[in-house]
Design goal:
It is built from 6 helices and 12 strands. With 231 residues, it is of the alpha+beta class. It has a 12-stranded mixed beta sheet.
């Protein structure tokens, strides 16, 4: 806990009344995201494939619920990351798609926790988005960055950071990242927009519960993939 408090205190706090600068604001928001804890709910729809993701992210640990597709093509999974250990449990389709298990192995693993190393490159796409630094990577904007008009959002005064983003399976598109305008620059929302600046629904993420503890418990895994360090 002492280490967490020290880390929190070290995060940049902007000077009151300072005029916002797009590059500085973005840098401070990313630093906060990587080092702190946050709850998020993300929805997207690319190539008519609905995607839902919700979780609690911390610097070393996190939990996540994933729903991809619908009906017979639905991937449904739960993820828990605790340091070097990642646990995943899902339906047969998710176990096959996310972990690379064969259809027979996926059928056997369905409904059971599967364990692997968070640092195993074979499963890097499974872990993406679960921890704080993964969240920061997923919402990262590409430049040039500009500031849009400030507004009220979920009861907060926010500044709008405009840039571009490349979603998997989609072309580069414009995106807006809303950041608290005062105090610590926490993320509030991110949206992809069309050429007129209107929300297009390709991606929508809402951030909340900044700083709340993220302390997932390790489940009992029935299958282990690859080498893991359980220390």
């Amino acid at each position: 806990m002492a280490a967490a408090v020290t880390l929190f205190a070290a995060l940049p706090v902007p000077t009151a009344g300072a005029a916002p600068n797009a590059a500085t604001l973005y840098r401070e928001a990313m630093a906060t995201t990587k080092a702190w804890r946050v709850h998020y709910v993300s929805t997207s729809n690319v190539a008519h494939v609905p995607f839902f993701e919700s979780g609690n992210a911390g610097p070393a640990s996190g939990t996540q619920t994933i729903l991809i597709g619908k009906g017979a093509t639905l991937d449904s999974a739960l993820l828990i990351v605790i340091g070097d250990l990642t646990y995943v449990k899902g339906n047969e389709r998710a176990m096959e798609d996310l972990t690379g298990l064969s259809p027979t192995e996926a059928a056997t693993a369905t409904g059971h926790w599967v364990l692997f190393s968070s640092n195993n490159p074979t499963f890097s796409q499974v872990v993406v988005g679960v921890r704080s630094r993964d969240v920061a990577q997923e919402i990262a904007l590409q430049g040039p960055l500009t500031l849009g008009p400030s507004r009220e959002l979920y009861g907060y005064r926010v500044d709008a950071l405009r840039g571009t983003q490349k979603l998997q399976g989609a072309t580069q598109m414009k995106a807006v990242l809303y950041v608290r305008a005062s105090g610590r620059h926490d993320l509030v929302e991110e949206d992809t927009v069309d050429t007129q600046g209107k929300v297009n629904g390709a991606e929508h993420i809402v951030f909340s519960k900044w700083g709340e503890p993220v302390k997932p418990r390790a489940p009992q895994a029935s299958i282990t993939l690859g080498s893991v360090n359980a220390t």
